[in-house]
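User: Structure tokens for both sequences below?

Assistant:
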Amino acid sequence: MHKNVRSVARGVAAACTALGVVACGSSGPTGGGQHAATVTVNPPTTSLVAGDSVALTATVKDAQGNTISNPTITWSASDTNAVSVSGSGVVNTLLAATDTITATSGGVSGTAVVTVQAPTPIPMHEGGLVGAVTFPNGSTASGAQGDPVDTIPCATGADAEHFHVHVSLIVNGQQLALPLGVGIQSAVVVGDSLAIAGTCFYWLHSHDRTGIIHVEPTVAGHTFTLGEYFDVWGEPLTSSSVAGNQGDVTVYVDGTRYVGDPRAIVLAAHQQITLEVGTRVAPPVYQFPPDY
């Protein structure tokens, strides 16, 4: 019996030799091939401005230092609010932050650090245009038509308060201009760019297409929300719809991702709000006109 076992063993060895099989029946890693020991990401550090992108690469080597060809790599980012990373290692930046990008192969990881700076503010001027003209002037038939909207009247008295908020609306990467004359009854428009007068003004209104909301109540102490402005305009604002544009809505307030009902955002002086429908892009930063 022992002789037969030895004969079988010699037969298997002979078969392996004849077939040219390497490590036939060895105790090495199952499946054969190279196994990742190190992952190196290049460039290891990058500085960008929000809105820019960079293509990272990952080199995977085995325990002997040999580069593994065509390895399977999974990419991830430590802060997906600030950056996104594709399956091929392309990093798109969204917000000012310092983010760690990780490439993983075979359970082994390597990292790179991407530092993102805020973009230079874009100047605005009264009567200007920010975005593509899409909407007609003034409030819609569903919005402010003279009667109070959400307890906000159309008033003619002196302002008790006066401050400004900027709103950007971006749909699948294209910025749309908010209309002029929202909340201004019977607006007098000069050069199709600036509403200079009207029979009355709602406490929330816009004079031009810059996206600047004028907050001018005749009674002090009122708290205003973004939802109230959209009601004066007469357009919907939800987590899936902005002024008739349907899709996933991403909201930024002063360069920070906002999670919650966008209608509930409380308006504040020199606040910058970005509403993005569909594709996420870096929210723009604007500089208010002098004396605003």
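Moving on to the next sequence.
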Amino acid sequence: MIALMAANWASAQNFEGVINMSTANEAMKETATLTWYLKGDRSRMDIVSQAGDHNSSYAIISDEKGMDMVAEGNVTNIPASAMKADMATLSLVSEMNAVSMNGYLCKQVVYSDGKYQTTYWLTDALNLKFDDIPMALRRNMPSISTAGFPVKMEKRDATGKVVLRQDVLSVKTSAVDDSKFERR
């Protein structure tokens, strides 16, 4: 599941609002939709996932108290030891400026770890950056040094097949009620 390898995320945000995303992980045969609420140092991701015949709905809440998964009224702490993810050593393959993706002007960057090539479409049009993404979302994404917020990411294997994809569907700057971050 997306949340099991989550990493702590507690960097200050200047963005308050809601981001809707979709993901597809071919290796896990999983697709998911995510509604991500951000306010200050708090984050809540409502995730609806389908992997094969298994459907699940849960939330990942991250704040000064730590990171917890909330599912069916149960709250499960995600310990720091489970939040470690190995990040691949990357080589920059290419960069291209002024590329349009998902309605944003982006910089397209392609990285390789020797096995996979990962393409990011990064925009500076949002008050967010790559490092603001909780590891629950980017655990399969290699760490990058390029600035900007990825509105799309595709990871391809040696044959060129997309094995992991994440798309930002919408971004809405709005007030987020504090009740969104309650663990219930």
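User: Anything stand out in the second?

Assistant: The chain has one helix and eleven strands.
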